Fold PepSY domain-containing protein.
Amino acid sequence: MSSPIAGAHPEASPLASRTQHPLLALLIRLHLYVGLLVGPFIFIAALSGLVYALTPQLEDRLYAEQLYTDSTGAPQPLARQIEVAQAHIGEAASLSAVRPAPKPGTTTRVMFSSPELGGSESRAVFIDPITAEVRGDLLVYGTTGVLPLRTWLDHFHRSLLLGEPGRIYSELAASWLWVAALGGFALWIIRRRRATGAVRSKGLRHWHAMVGLFLLIGLLFFSATGLTWSRWAGDNIGVARTALGMSTPSVSIALDGEAVAPAGEHAHHGGMAMPIARAAEPQMFDAVLSAARENGIDAGKVEIIAAPGPDRAWTVTEIDRSWPTQVDAVAVDPRTLRITDRTDFTTFPMAAKLTRWGIDAHMGSLFGLANQLLLAATALGLATLVVFGYLMWWRRRAQQRADRPGMVEVLLELSRRERWTAFGVALLLGYCLPVLGVSLLLFLLVDLLAMVVRRFGARSVRRNA
């Protein structure tokens, strides 16, 4: 494979000569541009993702005081635990959700919202369910409830800590990764067919190709799942899924038939605000949870959210992101404790199931440690590919030919049909993946400027000769 990431192909090879087909030359030039210009963003995303994938166990040790307890005995009612948490936090925040202790030896999270918190952020008070003792008070993030360490890493991986504008970086990486990977795979196939066994290289490019080939499926997975929660491409994907009837179902909290749904599947890794519960009697949490348990909500990890207003239902949602997937949810009428609506993962459209599995696997939570190690290995391999690509480009930079055509020149050499086909494909991709479209336009502008400068310089040399 030439390079799924950094387009470091040998300029002196037959593939880089003017005798090759313009479409092949275009693929090589695009591959090179993507590698050189997008490679740094992919490298940062890979390394930050690598660190993120390996931190769950570190968080367990770092926040063990808040997460775990040695107390034994019968647990206190949720009402008592909530009252202790409210007394601890005072009037500084409003109750937003409760996550009962998922198993013996773990703590209950009583979660609060306040105006100064960011989207998807909550302040969690950790309560020992046996003694009702406050074990800690931390900022948590999203549906998965990651703690401060991984929250920081998540923001860095997603936006370089630059907020919404910084998300362009990660979307740029995800938008081009699949193009670079498939383009590199295509170049590898072409070179393999043209080369004989006696002359095939066994140097850096060989190992670069083998690593890229081995990681190809993982790179495509990273790109596809990353795009689902990106800013612009993610919105387009959501619109397409809705139009095709493949969106993720969610329970309605309206008690009068009006469709009102809570936050969707990307809240854990995006900017959606956490729901704010209406002031509710703590005793209701025990009753609502009991009703949900009697109606099939059997996961250890659940989240209870009080009705946000009159004529609205409470919700109890399974939030276990490991395999087998447990994300069923029910809406409960607080007046009668009757189930008014429900969603079951088994009835989700296949696209919604794949999205759920893809997101959870991308986050490293679907298959536990094995999932984390596979993510870490793929991310490390991706970073290595970027480095290999730049090394090959650096070693061969002196061999660059002054007359080698740029991308614009290659486009002009295409037949009219080929040129319009390329234009149509680029237009379609640019519409679906706006960041890719804008960056491709910038590539062409830079290349056009370089072509003008190169031709102007050539004319000056001829005049002075």
Remarks:
- Strands lie at 94-99, 108-113, 121-127, 134-141, 302-305, 314-318, 329-332, 339-343.
- DSSP finds 14 helices and eight strands in the chain.
- Residues 1-17, 270-277 have pLDDT under 50 and may be disordered.
- Residues 14-54+161-231+369-464 form one domain.
